[in-house]
What does this fold into?
Amino acid sequence: MIKCHLSRMMGEKKLKISDVAKDIGVNRGTITRLYQETAVRVEFEVLEKLCIYFDCDIAELLEVKKLRS
It folds into this structure.
């Protein structure tokens, strides 16, 4: 399972989904799905834009969580 920390990162900076989408030139729906952790795929270009925007490493944005068996 992959955990996306976009909602936390946006909350810390008090950013809205629409602002991030507009600022990085990505569809609002894409940002919404990442924010709500319902995305099933994401383009590398979007991840790159988010990392540049938040001045973070990919590991700060996404985290692999092991599923408990």
In short: The mean pLDDT is 96.
